[in-house]
Amino acid sequence: MKKRITIAVVLIAFGVLIYQNITAHSTGMTGRTLKPGSDPGCICHGSSPTTSVNVNIIGPSSMGMGDTATFKLKINGGPLAAAGCDIASSSGNLITSPSESFLQRLAVGSDFELTHMSPKAPTSDTVTFTFRYIAPNTVGTATIYANGNSVNLSGTSSGDNWNYASSKTISVTSTSVREINGTASSFNLKQNFPNPFNPVTKIQYGLSKPGNVTLKVYDVAGKEVATLVNQYQNAGTYETDFNASDLGLTSGLYFYSLISGDKKEVRKMILTK
User: Fold this and answer.
1) Are residues 244 and 197 in the same domain?
2) What Å distances lie between residue 214 and 37, 133, 189, 193, 248, CA to CA?
3) For the segment 244-268, what is each residue's pLDDT rounded down to a tens digit?
4) What's the pLDDT score for residue 233?
5) Region 9-18: what's the mean pLDDT?
6) In terms of domains, do 192 and 143 share one?
7) Assigned domain for 198 exists
8) Are 144 and 167 in contact (CB under 8 A)?
9) Rg of the chain on CA atoms, in Å
């Protein structure tokens, strides 16, 4: 009789453990990315990552100090009746997006990570989680890490898969881009003001539709001297500062070029010292 009771207790404990793992699966996971100091892997959905699941972090590769940008985590492949995620960063801050109702922000030690509140169903064979990232207030690089799972919603972990995303490295510069207006009537690049300038001038531009945007400065020989913007941006009117003293530039004529999609505009500006 004593042996039967012991076996029963073990089975109950095992059942509680399974329940806890399924609950953790359904309400999010943290500490499971490739971020140093984490416990890599997704223990609820198999012991090893699988290449059948594709997890990609989409967003700008360059940001100004303290700037906020929108990123997307895309998951496809595997059974994909639904998907979940864990998103972490080396520095800066991860925050939820107002347009995303499936993510929550949880404390992990002294940092915060983003994870699903419940598994999210796919649209066109892909699950997309939208989130925001605030760059640190120091020049350098920062990294966003992620883990995504693809589940069949069978009630068990059998047949579920997961994989890591390729870590997203972000160059953090002293340039700050500000959104002035959420709309723009056309693609346009304004004349910098003041012009001539010493050593700081403002550059304003408009985007009539979202896309990858680059704003670069060149000297008269055509050599690139600065990248002010290199990121995905929504339609709108933006403004950024160009500080020549940061680059040790001499007086003279410079060009600045705005490119997004098949659109391009170039203007001149004069630095006087």
Assistant:
1) yes
2) 35, 19, 12, 19, 22
3) 876 778 999 999 999 999 999 999 9
4) 87
5) 36
6) no
7) yes
8) yes
9) 24
